[in-house]
Amino acid sequence: MLAATVLEQKAVCQQDPDQDEAEEIPEETAEYDTMLIASAGDLVAALSATLGTTFTPLFRTFYPLIVKYYVSHPLAELVNESSLPASAEEESFRW
Q: What's the pTM?
C-alpha cells in the first residue's frame, strides 16, 4: 500500500540518488518529507475511520510505521501529532 511505502520512506519521490547517507537532509527536502508523511498518516486515519473494526489487521501493519515518527525518528519533531489516527491509537490497546 502506498501509505506504508511512504511511512517506510521507500517511495520513489523520497529517494535522492545523489545524497550520501552521512549527509544531512536538506531543509526543503525535510519539509516535503514531513508533509508527505503527515499526509500518509491522514490516509491511514481515513482508512481507519472508514473501515472501522475491519481496519484491525491493517493497524498491525501501520502502527509500527507511524509510531517511529513519535519516538526516535529524525523527523519526529516535525511530524504533526494530529496525523496519528485517533481510532488506530484506540485499537492499539485492544491487541
A: 0.64
